[in-house]
Amino acid sequence: MCNQAYKDLLVSYLYDDINDMDRAKVEMHLRACEECRAELDALRDVRVDLGSWSPSLPDLGFRIVRDAKPAPRPSWRAWLTPAAGLAAAATLVVAAALSLAHIEIHNGPDGFTVRTGWSAAGSGVTTDSTGPIRRVFARDQLLPNDQINPAGLAGIAQRVDALEIALRQSPASRSAAVLSARASDEELIKRVRELLARSEMKQQGELVLRIAQVVNAFDAQRKDDLARIQANLTNLQGTVTKEAAAHVDLVNYLTTAGKQK
Amino acid sequence: MASTDEELVARSIGGDLDSFNQLVLRWERPIYALAYRVIGREEDARDVCQETFLRAFRALGGFKGQAKFSSWLYRITLNLCRDWIRRERRQPLAQTPEGVDLVELAGEAEDTDSVEELVARKEIGAAVSKAMALLPEEQRTAIVLKEYHGLTFQEIADMLDCPLSTVKTRLYQGLTVLRRQLERSNVTRLKDHHV
Q: Quick one: which of A18, A147, A195, B151 is 20 to 30 A from A211 by CA?
């Protein structure tokens, strides 16, 4: 009877989780089998020892709390994040770039306007091939924000470029307004050239004057240096003359002394 | 008169948070003790205990009362312990409770216990903890559920989804290993104090 099935019955008996029929069966076996009686006693001792293992129960105090508070609004400090700083810096850079490139973006009643270059706001649609470029997008050409896509924008840009090229290559298509604008530009350029010429002449005069001043200063300095060198040479010559005389006197003295001996 | 688990569960499902917190208060210690004895680490047992109640609260709508609420909680706890053991890939730590053991034991002890018996109880508790840590998870779980939580073999079998005979075999094998380990240890067994 001491097989695994019996061991299972023994465990059931140990924990008193057994029906009456199996209980009677086990008790009858235990009366006959000393080995099983010893094992049962040993397992009971283990159970006693198991009773001494009790965890120290901490103060748990768990509670489920309903989160009734709304999510806190981010304070102004939340904006002081590195990302926000980078975004601000990027905005400044873009603004500076637009300012340098003199790009103006205008959304007026006549449509959405992007103007590049240094042309006046009131100039014509285009000037000549070297002049600034103004791109005008009619309001009905614009897409709603949610329908704008890169491909569409690229297509519009291509169409505008093609239009500009066509305008540059076909003088006949230029309007009178364009021609008058060109004439006024030529007059302006002429005046600018005159101003530049005057400015150049004035600058040349100033340059000559500066050069003369430098030459005079250099000449005066050179004269001073020559005079100083001359004085030094004179002093040096006097010293050499004195030393030569002393040398002659010494030679004479030695000659005289030798003759006397 | 205190409400039964079933009544508190019904009220909790109806949105009464206080009823669920009464269930937490009632079961947090047994759940913590179960987790501690299975995984052997106080901090992790506390986490498992907390997670058990959170999961139970979230899944309360799916609890149909087909099992006792306590059995349902035990199942959640054991699943979390199994996840922990799998995640950590290690045997439970044989962690001996420090500090107020003697005081706690004195509180739990019977009036007839002497100081020597309290000390022996502490030493044997540590030896049991070490021996339990050596057991395979299945045997350890079966012993914990039977020995410390008083579940029937059938309840354990239902909870672990295994045959009744498997539960008994695991228990027998586990107890046999414990017996051998405790006999090898140098601690004075409690039975010797009662001789």
A: A195
Domains B1-93 and B114-188 share a fold: no
Give the strands of the sheet with A111-115, arranged side by side: A104-108, A111-115, A134-137
Residue A64 and residue B191: Cβ atoms within 8 Å? no
- Residues of chain A in contact with residue B22, where contact means CB-CB under 8 angstroms, are none
Give A39 to chain B, closest Cα distance, Å. Answer: 9
Q: Kindly determine whether residue B172 and residue A48, on different chains, have CB atoms separated by under 8 Å.
A: no
Contact B46 A42 (CB under 8 A): no
Residues of A in contact with B148 (CB under 8 A): 50
User: What is the predicted ipTM?
Assistant: 0.81
Q: What phi, psi does B95 have (nearest 5°)?
A: -95, 115
Selected for mutation to probe chain A from B58, B116, B172 (highest A CB count within 10 Å) is B172
Six token digits for residue A229: 């060198």
Q: What percentage of chain A's residues is helix, strand, coil (to nearest 5)?
A: 70, 5, 25
- A16 to chain B: nearest residue by CA? B152
Distance CA A47, CA A40 (A): 11
The domain limits of chain B are 1-93, 114-188
pLDDT digits (tens, 9 = 90+) for B94-114: 554 444 444 454 445 555 556
- Helix/strand/coil for A186: helix
Min CA distance, B71 vs chain A (Å)? 18
What are the tens digits of pLDDT across the range B147-174? 999 999 999 999 999 999 999 999 999 9
Give the global pTM.
Answer: 0.53
- Pairing status of strand A104-108 against strand A134-137: unpaired
Q: Which two tokens stand for residue B164?
A: 């009744």
Distance CA A17, CA A26 (A): 13
pLDDT digits (tens, 9 = 90+) for A181-200: 667 788 888 888 889 998 88
**Does the pLDDT value for residue A67 go beyond 60?**
yes
- Asked if B128's CB is within 8 angstroms of A52's CB, the reply is yes
CATH of B1-93, one of 3.40.1410.10, 3.40.50.300, 1.10.1740.10, 1.10.287.3610: 1.10.1740.10
Measured between alpha carbons, how far apart are the two ends of chain B, in Å? 44
- Beta bridge partners, A235, equal none
